[in-house]
Write a structure and sequence with these properties.
The protein is of the alpha+beta class and 382 residues long. The chain is built from 11 helices and 22 strands. The chain has 3 domains: 88 residues, Rossmann fold (3-Layer(aba) Sandwich), CATH 3.40.50.20; 55 residues, Dna Ligase, domain 1, CATH 3.30.1490.20; 198 residues, ATP-grasp fold, B domain (D-amino Acid Aminotransferase, Chain A, domain 1), CATH 3.30.470.
Length: 382
Protein backbone atom coordinates (compact mmCIF):
# COMPACT_ATOMS: atom_id res chain seq x y z
CA UNK A 1 0.00 0.00 0.00
CA UNK A 2 1.31 3.46 -0.93
CA UNK A 3 0.50 6.24 1.52
CA UNK A 4 0.67 9.85 0.35
CA UNK A 5 1.41 12.44 3.00
CA UNK A 6 0.67 16.11 2.31
CA UNK A 7 2.93 18.73 3.83
CA UNK A 8 1.52 22.24 4.15
CA UNK A 9 3.96 25.12 4.11
CA UNK A 10 2.99 28.15 6.16
CA UNK A 11 4.39 31.28 4.55
CA UNK A 12 5.96 34.02 6.64
CA UNK A 13 4.87 37.39 5.27
CA UNK A 14 5.96 40.80 6.52
CA UNK A 15 4.37 44.23 6.23
CA UNK A 16 6.49 47.38 6.27
CA UNK A 17 4.35 49.91 8.13
CA UNK A 18 1.72 49.41 10.81
CA UNK A 19 -0.95 52.02 10.04
CA UNK A 20 -4.61 51.50 9.18
CA UNK A 21 -3.81 49.90 5.82
CA UNK A 22 -1.66 47.31 7.55
CA UNK A 23 -4.44 46.81 10.10
CA UNK A 24 -7.04 46.03 7.42
CA UNK A 25 -4.57 43.85 5.54
CA UNK A 26 -4.05 41.79 8.71
CA UNK A 27 -7.80 41.53 9.27
CA UNK A 28 -8.04 39.88 5.84
CA UNK A 29 -5.07 37.61 6.64
CA UNK A 30 -7.17 35.87 9.30
CA UNK A 31 -8.86 33.94 6.49
CA UNK A 32 -5.58 32.28 5.47
CA UNK A 33 -2.86 30.11 6.96
CA UNK A 34 -0.05 32.64 7.06
CA UNK A 35 2.38 33.85 9.74
CA UNK A 36 2.39 37.64 9.80
CA UNK A 37 5.08 40.12 10.80
CA UNK A 38 4.91 43.93 11.08
CA UNK A 39 7.80 46.43 11.20
CA UNK A 40 6.88 49.84 12.59
CA UNK A 41 8.44 52.43 14.95
CA UNK A 42 5.34 52.75 17.13
CA UNK A 43 4.42 49.70 19.24
CA UNK A 44 0.92 51.19 19.67
CA UNK A 45 0.29 51.52 15.92
CA UNK A 46 -3.09 50.34 14.53
CA UNK A 47 -1.67 47.05 13.20
CA UNK A 48 0.54 46.03 16.15
CA UNK A 49 -1.91 43.79 18.02
CA UNK A 50 -3.22 41.96 14.95
CA UNK A 51 0.01 40.39 13.68
CA UNK A 52 1.74 37.27 14.98
CA UNK A 53 5.06 39.08 15.38
CA UNK A 54 5.63 42.81 15.89
CA UNK A 55 9.10 44.33 15.43
CA UNK A 56 9.77 47.90 16.51
CA UNK A 57 12.00 49.62 14.00
CA UNK A 58 12.47 52.18 11.24
CA UNK A 59 11.16 51.12 7.80
CA UNK A 60 13.54 53.68 6.23
CA UNK A 61 16.68 52.14 7.75
CA UNK A 62 18.60 49.70 5.51
CA UNK A 63 19.84 47.32 8.19
CA UNK A 64 16.52 47.27 10.08
CA UNK A 65 14.53 46.39 6.96
CA UNK A 66 17.11 43.87 5.77
CA UNK A 67 17.28 42.04 9.12
CA UNK A 68 13.48 42.07 9.37
CA UNK A 69 13.05 40.62 5.87
CA UNK A 70 15.78 37.94 5.98
CA UNK A 71 13.61 35.46 7.87
CA UNK A 72 10.55 35.97 5.68
CA UNK A 73 9.19 34.39 2.51
CA UNK A 74 7.51 37.56 1.25
CA UNK A 75 7.21 41.26 2.05
CA UNK A 76 4.75 43.99 1.18
CA UNK A 77 4.38 47.67 2.06
CA UNK A 78 1.59 49.90 3.34
CA UNK A 79 3.49 53.12 2.64
CA UNK A 80 6.02 54.06 -0.05
CA UNK A 81 8.63 55.65 2.22
CA UNK A 82 10.58 52.43 2.78
CA UNK A 83 14.24 51.54 2.25
CA UNK A 84 14.24 50.29 -1.34
CA UNK A 85 17.94 49.31 -1.27
CA UNK A 86 17.23 46.79 1.51
CA UNK A 87 14.29 45.39 -0.47
CA UNK A 88 16.50 45.01 -3.55
CA UNK A 89 19.05 43.02 -1.54
CA UNK A 90 16.32 40.84 -0.05
CA UNK A 91 14.88 40.23 -3.51
CA UNK A 92 18.31 39.17 -4.80
CA UNK A 93 18.44 36.63 -1.94
CA UNK A 94 15.10 35.08 -2.85
CA UNK A 95 12.56 36.97 -0.73
CA UNK A 96 9.44 37.80 -2.73
CA UNK A 97 8.65 41.53 -2.63
CA UNK A 98 5.15 42.82 -3.52
CA UNK A 99 5.39 45.05 -5.43
CA UNK A 100 8.90 44.66 -6.77
CA UNK A 101 11.48 47.17 -5.50
CA UNK A 102 11.86 48.44 -9.07
CA UNK A 103 8.20 49.52 -9.06
CA UNK A 104 8.45 51.10 -5.60
CA UNK A 105 11.57 53.02 -6.67
CA UNK A 106 9.71 54.54 -9.63
CA UNK A 107 6.52 55.36 -7.75
CA UNK A 108 7.94 56.74 -4.49
CA UNK A 109 9.67 59.55 -6.41
CA UNK A 110 7.25 61.80 -8.29
CA UNK A 111 9.91 62.88 -10.77
CA UNK A 112 10.71 59.27 -11.71
CA UNK A 113 6.98 58.51 -11.77
CA UNK A 114 6.24 61.29 -14.28
CA UNK A 115 9.24 60.32 -16.44
CA UNK A 116 7.95 56.73 -16.44
CA UNK A 117 4.56 57.91 -17.73
CA UNK A 118 6.27 59.96 -20.40
CA UNK A 119 8.51 57.06 -21.50
CA UNK A 120 5.59 54.62 -21.81
CA UNK A 121 3.19 57.14 -23.41
CA UNK A 122 0.78 56.97 -20.49
CA UNK A 123 -1.46 60.06 -20.63
CA UNK A 124 -0.43 62.50 -17.91
CA UNK A 125 -0.37 66.30 -17.76
CA UNK A 126 2.70 68.27 -18.92
CA UNK A 127 5.36 68.90 -16.31
CA UNK A 128 8.71 70.53 -15.59
CA UNK A 129 11.31 69.19 -13.16
CA UNK A 130 12.47 71.83 -10.66
CA UNK A 131 15.52 71.61 -8.37
CA UNK A 132 14.64 74.34 -5.85
CA UNK A 133 12.67 77.58 -5.42
CA UNK A 134 15.15 79.55 -7.52
CA UNK A 135 14.65 77.09 -10.36
CA UNK A 136 10.87 77.19 -9.86
CA UNK A 137 10.86 80.99 -10.28
CA UNK A 138 12.11 80.57 -13.87
CA UNK A 139 8.88 78.91 -14.96
CA UNK A 140 6.16 81.48 -14.27
CA UNK A 141 4.95 81.16 -17.88
CA UNK A 142 3.95 77.55 -17.08
CA UNK A 143 1.43 78.66 -14.44
CA UNK A 144 -1.21 77.81 -13.28
CA UNK A 145 0.34 74.57 -12.07
CA UNK A 146 0.71 72.22 -9.11
CA UNK A 147 4.07 71.87 -7.40
CA UNK A 148 4.72 68.38 -5.98
CA UNK A 149 7.75 67.52 -3.88
CA UNK A 150 9.59 64.51 -5.32
CA UNK A 151 9.67 62.46 -2.12
CA UNK A 152 8.00 62.55 1.27
CA UNK A 153 4.56 63.88 0.38
CA UNK A 154 1.38 62.08 1.48
CA UNK A 155 -2.34 62.76 2.07
CA UNK A 156 -2.18 66.17 0.39
CA UNK A 157 1.09 67.16 2.10
CA UNK A 158 3.91 68.00 -0.29
CA UNK A 159 1.48 69.42 -2.86
CA UNK A 160 1.08 73.16 -3.48
CA UNK A 161 -1.24 74.86 -5.97
CA UNK A 162 0.59 77.78 -7.65
CA UNK A 163 -1.67 79.90 -9.82
CA UNK A 164 0.31 83.17 -9.95
CA UNK A 165 3.90 84.39 -9.68
CA UNK A 166 3.17 85.72 -6.16
CA UNK A 167 2.62 82.16 -4.93
CA UNK A 168 6.01 80.86 -6.10
CA UNK A 169 7.35 81.29 -2.54
CA UNK A 170 4.89 78.62 -1.38
CA UNK A 171 6.63 76.03 -3.56
CA UNK A 172 9.26 73.54 -2.38
CA UNK A 173 12.93 74.35 -2.07
CA UNK A 174 13.79 70.77 -2.99
CA UNK A 175 13.59 68.51 -6.08
CA UNK A 176 9.99 68.55 -7.31
CA UNK A 177 7.78 68.59 -10.37
CA UNK A 178 5.72 71.51 -11.62
CA UNK A 179 2.66 69.90 -13.16
CA UNK A 180 0.33 71.75 -15.52
CA UNK A 181 -3.07 72.29 -13.95
CA UNK A 182 -5.83 70.13 -15.42
CA UNK A 183 -9.39 71.46 -15.66
CA UNK A 184 -10.80 68.59 -13.60
CA UNK A 185 -14.37 67.44 -14.08
CA UNK A 186 -14.03 64.26 -12.02
CA UNK A 187 -11.29 62.53 -10.06
CA UNK A 188 -11.41 58.75 -10.14
CA UNK A 189 -9.29 55.84 -8.95
CA UNK A 190 -8.86 52.39 -10.46
CA UNK A 191 -7.32 49.52 -8.51
CA UNK A 192 -5.45 46.90 -10.52
CA UNK A 193 -4.19 43.57 -9.19
CA UNK A 194 -1.52 41.54 -11.02
CA UNK A 195 -0.05 38.21 -9.93
CA UNK A 196 3.30 36.57 -10.68
CA UNK A 197 1.86 35.06 -13.88
CA UNK A 198 0.99 38.62 -15.08
CA UNK A 199 -2.72 37.79 -14.83
CA UNK A 200 -4.71 40.91 -13.95
CA UNK A 201 -8.06 41.95 -12.55
CA UNK A 202 -9.39 45.49 -12.43
CA UNK A 203 -11.78 46.98 -9.88
CA UNK A 204 -14.56 49.29 -11.14
CA UNK A 205 -13.49 52.96 -11.02
CA UNK A 206 -14.36 54.92 -7.89
CA UNK A 207 -15.10 58.64 -7.91
CA UNK A 208 -13.36 60.65 -5.21
CA UNK A 209 -14.64 63.93 -3.81
CA UNK A 210 -12.01 65.84 -1.82
CA UNK A 211 -12.17 68.27 1.07
CA UNK A 212 -10.90 71.52 -0.53
CA UNK A 213 -9.29 72.70 2.72
CA UNK A 214 -7.55 69.55 3.98
CA UNK A 215 -7.08 68.03 0.48
CA UNK A 216 -8.20 64.71 1.96
CA UNK A 217 -10.90 62.37 0.70
CA UNK A 218 -14.27 63.80 1.75
CA UNK A 219 -16.41 60.99 0.42
CA UNK A 220 -16.29 58.55 -2.46
CA UNK A 221 -18.78 56.81 -4.73
CA UNK A 222 -18.19 53.46 -6.39
CA UNK A 223 -18.67 52.45 -9.15
CA UNK A 224 -18.09 55.97 -10.45
CA UNK A 225 -20.96 57.74 -12.21
CA UNK A 226 -19.20 58.17 -15.55
CA UNK A 227 -20.07 57.34 -19.18
CA UNK A 228 -19.29 53.76 -20.20
CA UNK A 229 -16.58 54.86 -22.67
CA UNK A 230 -14.78 56.76 -19.88
CA UNK A 231 -15.23 53.74 -17.61
CA UNK A 232 -13.56 51.44 -20.15
CA UNK A 233 -10.81 53.90 -21.08
CA UNK A 234 -9.87 54.49 -17.44
CA UNK A 235 -9.64 50.75 -16.83
CA UNK A 236 -7.50 50.26 -19.96
CA UNK A 237 -5.07 53.05 -19.01
CA UNK A 238 -4.70 51.75 -15.44
CA UNK A 239 -4.19 48.15 -16.57
CA UNK A 240 -1.59 49.18 -19.17
CA UNK A 241 0.28 51.27 -16.58
CA UNK A 242 0.54 48.32 -14.18
CA UNK A 243 1.65 45.97 -16.92
CA UNK A 244 4.40 48.43 -17.89
CA UNK A 245 5.64 48.39 -14.27
CA UNK A 246 6.19 44.65 -14.76
CA UNK A 247 5.52 43.88 -11.12
CA UNK A 248 3.01 41.69 -9.31
CA UNK A 249 1.08 43.41 -6.55
CA UNK A 250 -1.88 45.68 -6.02
CA UNK A 251 -1.84 49.22 -7.43
CA UNK A 252 -4.19 52.19 -7.12
CA UNK A 253 -4.12 54.48 -10.14
CA UNK A 254 -5.55 57.96 -9.56
CA UNK A 255 -6.87 59.68 -12.69
CA UNK A 256 -8.40 62.99 -13.72
CA UNK A 257 -11.27 63.31 -16.20
CA UNK A 258 -11.21 66.80 -17.72
CA UNK A 259 -14.03 68.89 -19.16
CA UNK A 260 -13.38 67.39 -22.62
CA UNK A 261 -13.57 63.86 -21.17
CA UNK A 262 -9.86 63.26 -21.68
CA UNK A 263 -8.27 61.05 -19.03
CA UNK A 264 -4.96 61.88 -17.32
CA UNK A 265 -3.04 59.80 -14.81
CA UNK A 266 -2.41 61.82 -11.68
CA UNK A 267 -0.46 59.42 -9.44
CA UNK A 268 -0.06 55.73 -8.68
CA UNK A 269 0.16 54.02 -5.29
CA UNK A 270 1.96 50.63 -5.17
CA UNK A 271 -0.18 49.23 -2.36
CA UNK A 272 -3.64 48.88 -0.90
CA UNK A 273 -5.22 52.32 -0.92
CA UNK A 274 -7.86 54.47 0.77
CA UNK A 275 -9.81 54.55 -2.52
CA UNK A 276 -10.40 50.81 -2.09
CA UNK A 277 -11.70 50.69 1.49
CA UNK A 278 -15.24 50.11 0.21
CA UNK A 279 -14.23 46.78 -1.35
CA UNK A 280 -14.36 45.13 2.10
CA UNK A 281 -18.17 45.15 2.02
CA UNK A 282 -19.06 46.31 -1.50
CA UNK A 283 -17.04 43.92 -3.71
CA UNK A 284 -16.89 40.14 -3.89
CA UNK A 285 -13.15 40.18 -3.17
CA UNK A 286 -11.71 43.09 -1.19
CA UNK A 287 -8.45 44.77 -2.19
CA UNK A 288 -6.91 43.36 1.00
CA UNK A 289 -8.00 39.79 0.28
CA UNK A 290 -6.77 40.23 -3.31
CA UNK A 291 -3.25 41.15 -2.18
CA UNK A 292 -3.10 38.07 0.06
CA UNK A 293 -4.19 35.92 -2.87
CA UNK A 294 -1.31 37.36 -4.90
CA UNK A 295 1.31 36.91 -2.18
CA UNK A 296 0.16 33.38 -1.24
CA UNK A 297 0.00 32.31 -4.89
CA UNK A 298 -3.75 31.70 -4.91
CA UNK A 299 -6.11 32.45 -7.84
CA UNK A 300 -7.13 36.10 -8.23
CA UNK A 301 -10.53 36.97 -6.80
CA UNK A 302 -13.67 38.52 -8.26
CA UNK A 303 -13.30 42.31 -8.25
CA UNK A 304 -16.89 43.07 -9.31
CA UNK A 305 -19.12 45.27 -7.17
CA UNK A 306 -21.91 43.60 -5.23
CA UNK A 307 -23.71 46.92 -4.75
CA UNK A 308 -22.92 50.64 -5.20
CA UNK A 309 -21.14 52.13 -2.21
CA UNK A 310 -19.91 55.31 -0.61
CA UNK A 311 -17.01 55.95 1.76
CA UNK A 312 -16.83 58.71 4.34
CA UNK A 313 -13.53 59.40 6.09
CA UNK A 314 -13.70 59.87 9.86
CA UNK A 315 -11.31 62.76 10.52
CA UNK A 316 -10.24 64.48 13.70
CA UNK A 317 -12.28 67.67 14.22
CA UNK A 318 -10.65 71.08 14.09
CA UNK A 319 -9.79 72.42 17.53
CA UNK A 320 -9.47 69.01 19.20
CA UNK A 321 -6.27 67.19 20.12
CA UNK A 322 -5.89 64.42 22.68
CA UNK A 323 -7.61 61.12 23.64
CA UNK A 324 -10.20 60.38 20.95
CA UNK A 325 -13.93 60.40 21.64
CA UNK A 326 -16.49 59.48 18.97
CA UNK A 327 -19.56 61.71 19.02
CA UNK A 328 -22.61 60.25 17.23
CA UNK A 329 -21.14 56.76 16.87
CA UNK A 330 -24.22 55.01 18.30
CA UNK A 331 -26.48 56.82 15.82
CA UNK A 332 -24.35 55.80 12.83
CA UNK A 333 -24.09 52.18 13.98
CA UNK A 334 -27.90 51.97 13.93
CA UNK A 335 -28.10 52.93 10.24
CA UNK A 336 -29.00 50.21 7.74
CA UNK A 337 -26.21 48.93 5.46
CA UNK A 338 -23.66 51.23 7.11
CA UNK A 339 -20.33 49.78 8.25
CA UNK A 340 -18.00 51.59 10.65
CA UNK A 341 -14.24 50.97 10.66
CA UNK A 342 -12.26 52.58 13.48
CA UNK A 343 -8.48 52.46 13.16
CA UNK A 344 -7.67 52.08 16.83
CA UNK A 345 -5.77 55.37 17.14
CA UNK A 346 -5.89 56.54 20.74
CA UNK A 347 -5.05 60.18 20.02
CA UNK A 348 -6.88 62.53 17.67
CA UNK A 349 -5.76 65.79 16.08
CA UNK A 350 -7.29 68.02 13.38
CA UNK A 351 -7.54 66.21 10.05
CA UNK A 352 -6.09 62.92 11.31
CA UNK A 353 -7.61 59.81 9.71
CA UNK A 354 -9.33 58.00 12.56
CA UNK A 355 -11.50 55.62 10.56
CA UNK A 356 -13.96 55.36 7.71
CA UNK A 357 -17.60 54.47 7.14
CA UNK A 358 -18.82 52.43 4.18
CA UNK A 359 -22.42 52.80 3.01
CA UNK A 360 -24.21 50.43 0.62
CA UNK A 361 -27.31 51.35 -1.37
CA UNK A 362 -28.69 50.62 -4.85
CA UNK A 363 -29.62 54.28 -5.36
CA UNK A 364 -26.76 56.77 -5.89
CA UNK A 365 -28.79 59.69 -4.61
CA UNK A 366 -29.44 57.83 -1.36
CA UNK A 367 -25.73 57.05 -1.08
CA UNK A 368 -24.74 60.71 -1.26
CA UNK A 369 -27.49 61.68 1.18
CA UNK A 370 -26.39 59.05 3.70
CA UNK A 371 -22.74 60.04 3.25
CA UNK A 372 -23.58 63.65 4.09
CA UNK A 373 -25.69 62.50 7.06
CA UNK A 374 -22.82 60.43 8.45
CA UNK A 375 -20.44 63.38 8.02
CA UNK A 376 -22.84 65.63 9.93
CA UNK A 377 -23.41 63.16 12.80
CA UNK A 378 -20.09 61.42 13.41
CA UNK A 379 -17.39 63.63 14.93
CA UNK A 380 -14.04 62.82 16.53
CA UNK A 381 -13.35 65.12 19.45
CA UNK A 382 -11.13 64.98 22.53
Amino acid sequence: MIIFVAYYFTMKVGILGGGQLGRMLLQAAANYTVETYVLENDKNCPAAHLCHHFVKGDIKDFNTVYQFGKKLDALTIEIESVNVEALEKLESEGVKIYPKPSAIRIIKNKIKQKLFYQLHEIPSSDFIVTKNLKDLAKHTSFLPAVHKIAEGGYDGKGVQLITTEKLIKKGFNAPAILEKLVNIKKEIAVIVAMNDKRETVVYPPAEMIFDPVLNLLDYQISPAKIPQKIFWKAEAIAKNLVQELQSPGLFAVELFVDENEHIWVNETAPRVHNSGHHTIEANYCSQYDMLWRIMLQYPLGNSNAIMPSAIVNILGEEGYSGPAQYQGLDDVLQMENVFVHLYGKAETKPGRKMGHVTILHKDYGALVHQAQTVKAILKVIA
